[in-house]
Amino acid sequence: MVVLMCFVVMLLISHMYHLLIDAYEQSATLSDIEYSWFFRLLLNLVGYSTVLLPMFLLYKYLEKINYFDKLSNTSYTGRVLFACFGDPGERLPEASKARKEEGSAREGAELAFCFTGLMAAYLVWGLLQEKIMTQNYVMSDGSTQRFSDSQFLVFVNRLTALCVAGARLLCSRAPLAPAPLYKFSYCALTNVLSAWCQYEALKYVSFPTQVLSKSCKVIPVMLMGKLISRNKYELYEYVTAVLISVGMVLFMFGSHDDQAVSSAVTLSGAALLSLYMVCDSFTSSWQGAVFARYQCGALHMLCAVNAFSCALTAAAHAHHAPPLSLLHHPVFAADCIVLSVSSAVGQLLIYRTIARFGAVVFTIIMTLRQAVSILLSCAVYGHAVSAGGALGVLLVFAAVSLRIYCRQRLRRRRPAPA
């Protein structure tokens, strides 16, 4: 009866969501004002609640009746519920400090592998994403059609990553749920919200302004790590985080024309960028806490997060029919396949980096990726970099070098375990 009640709640929320989206699309007042993004955000949250609210009701019911204490989980239903919710009273403790110490050479080689893989995967992903969203595809009848549904691309990317991770886990016969599945729903929700805010912010701010906000993400990630996992950072980590942020600000202002950088940031754009920073910082920090608490691998994280992301995205956009006509275009289909594969590889490397080096190191790598990609753009297209921009690049790489040096020196000073 509880499951039936959850299903009824899901249908009611879905019906209410369709009524709200129809009212929004028919109202010219709501869709034309500057703060229309706020109503779209509320609509998305209602769509996400189609999946999240029934799960929450079932979770609270199991917690109230002490289901896992009274009944054994030998039955099929018990095993499924235990895999989804585990112990309802369990909370994430402080991040585990018992990481295996390895040689600096091996650690450096793995860090270089993660950095190079992320660079290559997201370079291909970014080029194909721009191509798909800006290029006109010539159909068989001679007409041209442009793809514009970015949410469909997000859904396809995450569905591909889910299939790849699920197939790999099944082939390796690894446990599919090393942690309660509901633990992954938090970071999946913030991951979807941060992606939506990233796309929506471009309607109100320039692209350089958005990249500039991403380059200062190291400090919010550290603050979120202290809040979620109670991580303790050394003084040199705070200093290098500030230096990296300052260096990226100098570099961004010195690698674009003044008109693009000085474009006014509207209140809506600032709100969306702030929400993006909070959600994205929470995503990586929560994933790091899950990695530290459970015996969870990158494939498990990739599979679980993308399963929830697919469910949330599909629930929030169920009323939109996907552009199936373009899927018959061979060039578009090939672009979508390569885009999805590069996205899946990039996500796998993201989770591997977070699991091995933590959320802060991953954020620094992605910050360096932005700097390298802009330098590559300047080299290919002949954009000028001012003296301040060059100083910013030197400051960023000096901060990263200082961070590595201080980390190795601090590790050598610590006494070896008995």
From TrEMBL:
GO MF assignments: 3'-phosphoadenosine 5'-phosphosulfate transmembrane transporter activity
Transmembrane annotation, as ranges: 41-62, 235-254, 260-278, 299-319, 331-350, 357-382, 388-406
Compartments in which it is found: Membrane
Protein species of origin: Trichoplusia ni (Cabbage looper)
Protein name, entry field: Adenosine 3'-phospho 5'-phosphosulfate transporter 1
One annotated Gene Ontology cellular component of this protein: Golgi membrane
Membrane topology designation: Multi-pass membrane protein
Highest taxon listed in the record's lineage: Eukaryota
Gene this chain is encoded by: LOC113499723
Chief subcellular location: membrane
Pfam family membership, one: UAA
InterPro entries hit by this protein: SCL35B1-4/HUT1
Keywords: Membrane, Transmembrane, Transmembrane helix, Transport
Family: Belongs to the nucleotide-sugar transporter family. SLC35B subfamily.
